[in-house]
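Q: What would this chain look like folded?
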Amino acid sequence: MIKSHESARTPVFLIPLIIGLISAMQPALAQDDPAGQPGVVQAAPPVSFAKMPADQVRTELLQWLATSGAKQPVLEKVIAPWADNTALAVLSGEEVLDLLVSSFAETDSAAQRLLVESNGAGPVEGVIYDGIRAAPLYQNQLQLFHARWLTQHRYYDEALPLLSELLPENVVDPAGLLFYRAVCQSQLLQRQQALDSLSLLLNNTLDVPGRLRVVAQVMQQELAVQVDDGMEQISLLMRDVGRRLDLGRSGQNTQKQEDAIIKELDRLLEEMDQKNKQQSGGGGGAGSSDNPAGSQGADQSQIKGSTGKGDADHKELEEGGKWGLLNARDEAKARELIRQKFPSNFLDQIGRYTKKLAEQKK
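A: My prediction, written as structure tokens:
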């Protein structure tokens, strides 16, 4: 974390320059604004989010600069890219965010450090938002910038709390905020929350870049048909554990996901065991005319090795054991099905967790 910002103020003789720039760049209000005319009732617009107007961003930036302690040559350098209204109007929300963070970095050491680290391999540390860094324009945009980097580098656990704290109307790039929030929620298996974020992005947000919209639509379609249990859920959990291990995260959250995988595998194996027992008991019945034993037919129809109550016997999981009650041919079919339907490392990860269980029993 960066230490608190040292107290600094722009020299008094520069403040009129800043105020003058604010006034000169602020567009004049339209004289025929119907909202200001008596008797004109404006219809309430639908709830929607849009990138923050460039003139608003520029005004708040100049006001922040007035308290930053920056020298006149630095101020002129920072202000220059914000002077062209036409150029600013065509920037995406993401580009406005990048420009704004670069402007902060010219005068603030924490923003400069964050920008430099984001252009490297990481890690990227957060900022302590106090002093002039507590200004909403500064804090909200740097927090979004930081969370975007974390998401792009798969640090979803760290990114999601930062994104969840932000409101679309308080950032210059609401489309980016909702998109990266949905990505984190999806990757952390928060399916409904991800669908809610995608709905806001696709239905209630303006200025969504085409590439984000296409990816969001694909995510929405996949999440809509995703199930929360079974082999698909195991695949998602394994993917998440693999990501955590790739990032060197083997702590409590990773172990929690591993336990969930083992629990779901145990459930599926138990279901398979029960189905096999039911199928093996559905052949010959006590009423068969070919049964020479007569009254002993009921005993012969019982599942071999059962307790008489339909309970499955507890099976110790061995490192090199079979898959439930499958014979070699059926096991080969199951493995081939997994190879076709699931990621290439799926079987390897099953082997890892089976081995882990065997080690825990020693």
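The longest helix spans residues 252-280.
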